[in-house]
Amino acid sequence: MAYQLYRNTTLGNSLQESLDELIQTQQITPQLALQVLLQFDKAINTALANRVRNRVNFRGFLNIYRFSVVL
After folding, report:
1. DSSP state of 25
2. 36 vs 1, 4, 17, 20, 39, CA distance in Å?
3. Measured in whole angstroms, how far is the alpha carbon of residue 70 from the centre of its chain?
4. Taking the CB of residue 19, how many other CB atoms lie within 10 A of it?
5. Contacts for 19-28 with beta carbons within 8 Å, 24 or more apart?
6. What is the model's pLDDT at position 3?
7. Residue 36 and residue 33: Cα distance in Å, rounded?
8. How does pLDDT run across 19-48, given as a tens digit for each residue?
């Protein structure tokens, strides 16, 4: 189910809303909408794996560990 992670993004939600509208107006079938979503899952995962090269590093300080104050 990790491949469906990006369905909850703005782009994924917009796609789902558009597909739902097309289903309601009977312009596409639910099976076609499912195929579109599966293709979206594959495409977004491939694009992010191959095209995005950004990384994020962060540092922090630990003040409390298991209810004990760290000095």
Report:
1. T
2. 16, 12, 12, 12, 5
3. 37
4. 19
5. none
6. 72
7. 5
8. 999 999 999 999 999 999 999 999 999 988
Phi, psi of 65 (to 5 degrees): -130, 115
pTM of the predicted structure, to 2 decimals: 0.68
pLDDT in the model for residue 30: 97
Q: Which strand (E) or helix (H) includes residue 19?
A: helix 10-24
Token output for 4: 């469906």
Let me know if 42 is exposed, middle or buried by CB neighbors in 10 A (0-12, 13-18, 19+).
exposed
Domains and CATH numbers, the chain: 2-54 (1.10.287.190)
- What residues have CB less than 8 Å from 3, skipping those under 6 apart? 41, 42, 45
Written as six digits, the tokens of 28 are 């596409």
Rounded CA separation 6/9 (Å)? 5
